[in-house]
Amino acid sequence: MADVHIKNVTKSFGEHVAVNGLDLHIADGEFVVLLGPTGAGKTTTLRLIAGLERPDSGTIEIGGHNATTLSPAERDTAFVFQQYSLYPHLSVYDNLAFPLRSPARKIPEDQIRRRVEEVAKMVRIHHKLANRSTKLSGGEMQRVAIGRALVRKPAIYLMDEPLSSLDAKLRADLRLELKRIQSELGATMLYVTHDQIEAMTMADRIGILADGVLVQIGSPRTIYSEPANLHVAARLGQPAINLLPTGLLPDAGAPAGTKTIGARTEHLAIEKASNGHADGVVDWVEHLGDQNHLHVTVGPKKLVTLTDPDTDLAQGDKVMIRYRSPLYFGADGQRLM
Amino acid sequence: MAEIRVQHLRKAFGDFVAVQDSNFVVEDGEFFVMLGPSGCGKTTTLRMIAGLELPTGGQILLGGEDVTMLRARERDIAFVFQLFALYPHMNVRKNIGFPLLAQGMPSTEIRSRVEETARLLRIDHLLNKSVSGLAGGDRQRVALGRAIVRRPKCFLMDEPLGTLDTEFRDLMVHELRELHNRIHATTVYVTHDQMEAMSMADKIAVMNHGVIEQFGTPREIYDRPATMFVADFIGSPPMNFLGFGGGLAKGAKEIVVQGAKVAVPEVREDVAPSDMALGIRPEHIRFDDASKLRGAIYGTEYLGTTQIVAVETADGIIKARVPAEIRLNAGDHVGLALNSARLSLFDKGSGRAVRTAVHDTASQGRAQHG
After folding, report:
1. Which of A309, B198, B278, B353 is 20 to 30 A from B153, comparing alpha carbons?
2. What is the chain A residue with the closest CA to B194?
3. Domain A242-336 in this protein, CATH class
4. Burial code of B158-181, b = ≥16 C-beta within 10 A, e = fewer?
């Protein structure tokens, strides 16, 4: 494993700037997740590191060596694509062994067997090693695809939304597995996704990507509790952060220049109005099972927060709402301290 | 708009039975979701309601009329595939009006119908804009407008949000439900995503291997799962199970799990000795050193306001949802306190839920939407 250092990399396709002046250092053994919507430049970043694209400017160092102009084969990266691409005519075993059998490597067959079995256990597919790859379920195929990357020990694993084609349950299982495997292997991993849960639960650091620009990078806790600006604040959290204008609720603590107040569940104290004064009215308590959302109308705005499953608040109740150290944003959208 | 009544519906493809004896009623104006893993028979059921597939047996009544053997176009339904593709060379007005134009409706009528639809979706100010310049949410609204402009008896939707980014998906889930609250069109919606089902449905049918395992409101299905399959399919993370042995006697209020006594809702039926399972939702677990039920922290998943904590117990991993400010480290030993009033009991062999005091609660419907 190795570290990867991207320095001021820009890549355009015609008029469109896909990646714009990207600086990113992924430490050896670190799990970095780039989070952003479709078109943010996530996949292009992976392809630049893999050598499938050449940057217009800037450099990419892998393990301390300049790799900017190296071919993909010379870079020693392993790529897992969104759509699993297995060899349909081969068994699971042979699919997993394939990267090790490259003529350039000359690895003895017993060593290959040991490695394949080890990885097959890791991704929980060892009971199906003899199966044809086409005889697997979607989740199993994706585990083989991930396993095929893991049999090698490259400088870095590059993963392009590998879980997005799976159903929710399997995604949740594999999230925990992938994180465990990565930390066991001490693997350097760059993982891109548009799913905030994947980013929050797996990453050592999350990089928020928007329109080809890295807006903020930090630990999940930092990104969540100290977002640099409105864009980052809005990307994380379910329900989404409430963005309210100043003056809507008592906000004496707001620093000068505050235009917008960001309030998540933990930034709001909501209770039944007792002395006739009310800030808002309960619109609806939405029971989603594991999460219950409280919808409150405050003047022209609507608030959504998490609430206790057995809350005694009900539709039509008048409530008092107070901020508890919320986030403050200026007119330019940047967070004010 | 109309009620949909499905009676003893069955579909076999050769030896494979895709749908076995399904019975349910979708009331007029209801948002009904069929939920289950791939291959459970939900899409086949939907296709039979649409008339794209003929049943092997049973009946489908649409607004009281037997449509079982009618062709799709004779049924006055709208089948919505993915809410995604727009005609890029047409403006918003033409995109929404297209299905009416294809029907040969006079242009003055198309005009008024399109404008009415656009008002309903709150995009009337965009009618003459090109769709390529629209923001994501507005594009989705236009796609939705194209589906509803025909005003059919009911809407059938097959994973319409399947390919969207999570963020758009959340947006569209609310959009769809709000739209439903405005037009009250009978809707049958198929998905494998339990969050979509819980967020939108008035009623849910959970399907597995061609069988409806449970039919009820989202709250009933979440709080009182009829089978272990349902308990495991709903919830994120799903319900935890801890095994225990012995039978249960009517009136019992306590069981023994891993040597620890656990208070449970009063049992309402006798169960012969067999392998049993205690079902616990992740949000009904607290950490309490005084508890005899113990485990070691396996890992945590930070979600911002809350976190999911995986705890290794003598009977495998169980997951708890607790506030994010509690700091925990892998390997820490913890005691688990369970919210007794919310526990479920199952017979492991059949997977069926044991009747307890939880089932006494009158079935609570879905809270009214704002």
Report:
1. B198
2. A168
3. mainly beta
4. bbbbbebbbbbbbbbbebbbebbe
